[in-house]
Amino acid sequence: MVFVVFESLVNGPFPHPQMAGGVPNPDAPSMNAPKANATFGYAMAVNTSRFVGVEDLRRAAQRRLPRPVFDYIDGGAEGEVTLRGNVRAFEDVAFRPRCAVDTPPPDLRTTVLGTPIALPVILAPVGSSRMFWPRGEEVAASVAGETGTIYSLSTLSGCRLEDVKKATSGPAWYQLYLLGGRDVASATLRRAIDAGFSALIVTIDTPVAGMRERDLRNGVKELVARRLGPMLPYLPDLFSHPGWLVRFLRDGGLMKFPNVMLADGPMPYADVGVALEESTVTWGDLRWIREIWKGPVVIKGVHTGDDARRAIDEGANAIVVSNHGGRQLDSVHPTIRVLPEVVAAVDGRIEVLLDGGIRRGSDVVKAVCLGARAVLIGRAYAYGLAAAGAPGVRRALAILQADITRTMKLLGCKSLAELERSLVSVPADWVRDTTSGPQV
Hints:
The protein is of the alpha/beta class and 440 residues long. It has helices at residues 2-11, 54-64, 67-74, 81-88, 136-147, 161-167, 182-195, 213-217, 220-225, 228-231, 235-239, 242-250, 272-277, 285-292, 305-313, 335-346, 361-369, 379-388, 390-411, 428-435, and strands at residues 94-95, 110-112, 115-117, 121-123, 151-153, 172-176, 199-203, 256-262, 265-268, 297-302, 318-321, 351-355, 374-377, 424-425. It has one domain (2-21, 61-427): TIM Barrel (Alpha-Beta Barrel).
């Protein structure tokens, strides 16, 4: 019995025809469901109104997923200092409201790189979303489109980029790793152009995969190695989540990466760590990337004012203040703390976005007050996707949207344009860090 299930985990007994054996089949019928429900054939009855905050979605995801999968979403690098700090640092930003003013329902609309969106929240690239929910990237993209915002697709997606773009009625960005080398990445860029992705995210903070201790303790290496003996100690946890397991197997089992097409087919899941070490992005790479990609380029992974200025010099159209959600170098400053430094360095020349630690709409408002054009959310929507599929993603966005609306009314602001630095106060040492240069 264990051997049968093992074979299923490796090969997937019920692969969707578009991904039979992990290989894209462009002639297979489309998996795209109507945008109105975005169930993609895997509906699950869930009363999402009981989820009051993102933390409720997190707990629901934790109950539904096996530990290795949940910790892939939830965990960070090493001691997870930065992971915790990203969230906690928002508590150090205090509001300074304007009271006794008439505030009609606030207008949350904005533009990012000239693209109008309904609220200042973009879905960040989250790799391997098919592990959380069948056709996970397509499901999340569909909900982003119906909400009126941008979906960003990771190179490490389990769904073909063409299918993800078709799944959304809104704009989509493609996030690039140079996995497989320049020729492979160039071919993927051309596919993304042909599919209609409107901006390119280039991630610069992954010269090596971070030390994610939860993955080691959970046996992720053993589980993806596809050898029964080493897998055995970790299989009971998978079997104890039958609802997840059945959907995972019906969706094709352990996925490959169809947007990283190597000479012998899609890149296997187990090759990611080694591939990242062999595909470091440097500033020089932006030159050949620009020769292929003529649209906007967003540099993700900026921690300092110096790197922000360098990104501008290299032709970036926007930057994302990001520490990879605390999953790469531990003990770097939380992103909200370094945002003022980066905004000062950019000085209005390009747009500044932020990700990391967003759990409430008030966090979004604080980031906009400190100079961010919008924020990217990863875990916040990934918890929703893992908890309930499309309804969970929809609920995560609705929670944030309601929070933003309420916070702006309490601040006395009727549009995002009125959110400014005077509405928040930050610790004095944050200001010193932005003006004194490198600390000794």
